[in-house]
User: Fold Putative pyridoxal-dependent aspartate 1-decarboxylase from Marinobacter halophilus.
Amino acid sequence: MTGKKKSAQASIEAMYRVFTVPEAPESTLSRIDQNISRNLAGFLQEHIVAVERDLSEVEKNFADSAIPEKPVFVSEQAQFLLDKLVANSVHTASPAFIGHMTSALPYFMLPLSKIMIALNQNLVKTETSKAFTPMERQVLGMIHRLVYQQDGSFYRKWMHDPRHALGAMCSGGTVANLTALWVARNRAFPAEGSFRGLHEEGLFRALKYYGYEGAAIVVSKRGHYSLRKAADVLGLGRDALVPVDTDDNNCIQTDALRDKCLELQKQKIKVMAICGVAGTTETGNVDPLDAMADIAREFGAHFHVDAAWGGPTLFSRTYRHLLRGIEKADSVTFDAHKQLYVPMGVGLVVFKDPSLASAVEHHAQYIIRKGSRDLGSTTLEGSRPGMSMLIHSGLKILAREGYEILIDQGIEKAKSFAQMIDEQPDFELITRPELNILTYRYCPEIAQQALAVADELQAEKINTCLSRITKFIQKTQRERGKAFVSRTRLEPARYFHFPCIVFRVVLANPLTTAEILEDILKEQRELSGEKGIADEINILNQMANAVLKQNQKEAKHA
Amino acid sequence: MTGKKKSAQASIEAMYRVFTVPEAPESTLSRIDQNISRNLAGFLQEHIVAVERDLSEVEKNFADSAIPEKPVFVSEQAQFLLDKLVANSVHTASPAFIGHMTSALPYFMLPLSKIMIALNQNLVKTETSKAFTPMERQVLGMIHRLVYQQDGSFYRKWMHDPRHALGAMCSGGTVANLTALWVARNRAFPAEGSFRGLHEEGLFRALKYYGYEGAAIVVSKRGHYSLRKAADVLGLGRDALVPVDTDDNNCIQTDALRDKCLELQKQKIKVMAICGVAGTTETGNVDPLDAMADIAREFGAHFHVDAAWGGPTLFSRTYRHLLRGIEKADSVTFDAHKQLYVPMGVGLVVFKDPSLASAVEHHAQYIIRKGSRDLGSTTLEGSRPGMSMLIHSGLKILAREGYEILIDQGIEKAKSFAQMIDEQPDFELITRPELNILTYRYCPEIAQQALAVADELQAEKINTCLSRITKFIQKTQRERGKAFVSRTRLEPARYFHFPCIVFRVVLANPLTTAEILEDILKEQRELSGEKGIADEINILNQMANAVLKQNQKEAKHA
Assistant:
């Protein structure tokens, strides 16, 4: 062999080894692997740096746009990932990380995920998934039953029926919502007479054939942004996502909903779907689903419930009633990587009527042929991993009782935290928790007193100031790395619906304790005393004083 | 404490343990975990049963639709999964599993996946992903550069620019194609004058405003079914996916493409996108991308290339030229869980022009705010896992050279297998490999001789018979569990475009050897001699004999 040929042969052999020889037990990667298995919390604690680095700093480690020509050693890449990626990742499992919907995971999820990845099944078709397909159908059946509570014979008939699917597994809630609305849209304009259906002929001809000027999805203004995205993707346009006002508890006003539907009807716009929210992303409130279902029926609209967050509340005998009416929904979105405590990347939608999914059925010659059990014929996605195995295991190992405890504990913790905030003179609860989400802000006593008597213009000024302070505290706390709350913008009725930035807290991590919550408030109070925000605090105090003084004056005059 | 309270407290503590105490090293799950780390191939070999069980049998293990009330032990569920799920899963990593696009994975992917899952980042926003966001941006940049080969300054300017994204990470190729066409659709009908753009006002008003009767996506008839699905989802209707005839090599006929576009134009249908295929799913052929790009420009259409399969061919200095013209595409789809050898569940689309993604930009109040670096503002999906870490590691550890070897080996293996088939008198190659995919069938010599002289009606009868035989052999071979080829339906020009069922082979697993391929042919030949298909084989022989006899007679007469 020539030198060139020899080196080519050596490269090929090296490549072969990459696929056949496991990492040696003492290799960097194996050590990390074992470390994670033995003590995940310790691993995360040790490797994730607490203090946030500026992203522009972090970007320097990921600046090269050229794919390297020559391989680097696995150990080198492993060390790089530890130092540059893991170190600067977010400790989403931390009990003080209560700003988003990502929690600690049950321990068994980790080794189970490894099995899933090792098996590398593809759920699009049974040829690459075999038993994973019936398992996924069972998971869809179980969640369907949790929502719709049909009897055993219903599931015996439909769960494994190759021509039907009780739902669709998705990569997350966004695709689940999109899938539901895709079904709704296609069903709103079915084949009739010479018209072969929207799914074949498209929206333009559908509206012309049925004599409409447009089609709308109606939802409370607290609906998730994925619904607006779905309106865009589906070709309806973002205008077609019609928001309805909410009451003081962030729940849709049913009168306003009916009025809006009537108005749309008059404009010859088809109310294609009404969406109820079971756990708004920002405030965790649940729409009056029962009443919404009736309105949907009245207007012949598909009734979808986005229960991405709140769905698992159905596990709780104590709080299940909050979702009353969900069983009337034509479709319901669940996110598994939220309150089913499964790793990132899986959600699902269930359909009340097993025939619904057929509205979006697609086939191909080499897979998902007609009559096959393949689940790929009614999912938006094609190739998909076996994540349902993790849901299956959660439902078995935690069981209804386990999930009930998680739900109940979260809601009760939120209630205690709300009370804790109420008891602090310098914090203001903005939205009281219905589920396990609440919002609040730092608001010195004097500002609260001033707001209580302020007119609209005065309140606007004080709130603008408070929003700046809230933003500063939230950002700085995140950067310090001990704790994390998120922030959003709400329009509290008591402040003339003026947009206010608030802290948002999600209490789904079972490891979050009352002490941690107390510490978070304490740190926030301390941050309000920092130099960086001192000017703003001064202005706030002056404004509040002025408002109070003027108010006293007016009171005397009166 | 009362008994009830005590038991409640015990349940809560048990729940707490699930989140804090790792599986004991000697637990069933830990043993599986270690087993997989040490000897994945052995684990799969040992636990996956070779002989296929009927799915209706397997379904019995997944028949209960009720979520269990009481928790089961982790070990119990682990054992259940081993016995009922793993045992009846598909050995996708097997070198004899050459029917689909799922291969063995490099060993390091497994421990790396574990790190990814342990970190449980959410890429929708930097608040839940930090360094993962720049890393993902780098991955998008690297693939962008592989395709478009812009210079370093281009990437320094755009790769980490918070207001732009060079692409979108997705759960797979279907969502990648959908995202590209979503961008194309919105850009085909932009805001102008009083019209606020399709993304706001929807397709109906867009077509009315611009004076069109419809919008079409034009692609060869070998295009992936996800494109038809996208046409449906996007509200264009499946009719809007306009197929164009292919030549004998399954590549689009550019003359026919131009004619089709002219025809659409005449019908006042906007040619919204032209899609080139770089690696057709069924036959692995590459469209003439360069010529297609010119036609797309001529009609002002978005040019998308679906390189879900063939994209990584760009790593190969030898075969890169097959994709000439891909750099003219406005968008290109890559699947990472195919020829980037990453576990199931990740694909991506890159955009030539960094501003393209803005056509589908969405924002919300609590995340992906304007000006943030959050990648979630331009992805179809919301919450997403950090799968790009696995692509990053593949690109570093295998590097360009490693991927080149994999690509080159696959293509060369396909060529040798084609030759092997050519040399067998009783097998017929249907499509010659351009990349690493080919199709063929079992076809006794006499049948081949008869087909060579048969008229259309005779050929139809013989091919119908051969299709039944092919289907039998494919199904039986799969059920026996030693090897797996897939099947599809093609319309070979030499058989008057009559639909024929053929074996389809994908040679991407580096562990597949010539011996394995020989064995597959051998088993198929043996299966053709089985009782279950004997009648069909007899009929075939009779038909072939009759055709040959008649032909001889006619030859004499002539």
